[in-house]
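Postdoc handover notes: sequence design on the structure in folder B. Input tokens:
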């Protein structure tokens, strides 16, 4: 049985027996658990393989619970690790990745995660990156916000955003909980933004804290995931 060569992001690790670790990689195939045998010993050469946020290329056994054979570090993403605020926000993003269901489009999600890490290394506001990431992966959790028409009646003339209803609403469907049109337009621009264009300056004057809180309320209302990392974020 041939071994497998694969590229991945280290999203975490746990101790395994006395001298080893299990390393969780996110790859184009989804999340993979890899045994790094002897990684806790003093002479181990696998420290970089077990370090969260490292981008690695590795050779693993082709088995249900693969074992690491060899690896190369592609990028240690040093800037992210050295900047506390950026590190916390990227750890939050990795927590979201760790909750991706097995049937997600992992190839597309992996490429998006790599770009997000690259943007963070290029000093793009990490809160903005987290907002974009959360919005873009809503569909992974089976949530599809309706933003271009009224979520209740289909009217294309919308006047605001209603989180409970799951999207934009028109004047006839407006309630006391409807957020104003300015918020709706900002959420739409973020949701449909193409991060490949690198035009992040357009969000410079956005109230990111307000938007982040709105998005998390949306997650609480329409998804079944809980994010512990919220408690440690730096605003």
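Designed sequence:
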């Amino acid at each position: 049985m041939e071994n497998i060569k694969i590229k991945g992001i280290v999203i975490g690790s746990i101790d395994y027996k006395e001298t080893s670790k299990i390393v969780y990689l996110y790859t184009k195939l989804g999340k993979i658990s890899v045994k790094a045998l002897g990684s806790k010993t003093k002479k181990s050469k696998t420290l970089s393989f077990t370090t969260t946020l490292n981008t690695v290329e590795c050779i693993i056994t082709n088995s249900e619970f693969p074992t690491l054979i060899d690896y190369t570090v592609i990028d240690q993403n040093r800037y992210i690790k050295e900047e506390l605020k950026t590190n916390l926000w990227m750890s939050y993003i990795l927590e979201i990745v760790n909750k991706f269901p097995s049937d997600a489009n992992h190839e597309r999600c992996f490429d998006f995660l790599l770009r997000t890490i690259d943007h963070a290394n290029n000093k793009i506001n990490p809160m903005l990156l987290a907002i974009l990431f959360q919005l873009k992966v809503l569909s992974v959790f089976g949530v599809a916000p309706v933003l271009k028409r009224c979520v209740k009646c289909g009217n294309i003339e919308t006047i605001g955003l209603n989180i409970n209803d799951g999207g934009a609403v028109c004047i006839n469907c407006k309630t006391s909980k409807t957020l104003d049109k300015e918020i709706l337009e900002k959420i739409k621009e973020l949701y449909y933004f193409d991060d490949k264009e690198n035009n992040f300056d357009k969000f410079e004057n956005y109230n990111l804290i307000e938007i982040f809180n709105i998005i998390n309320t949306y997650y609480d209302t329409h998804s079944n995931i809980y994010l512990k990392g919220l408690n440690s974020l730096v605003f």
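Context for whoever picks this up: The chain has a mean pLDDT of 94. Don't rerun without checking with the PI first.
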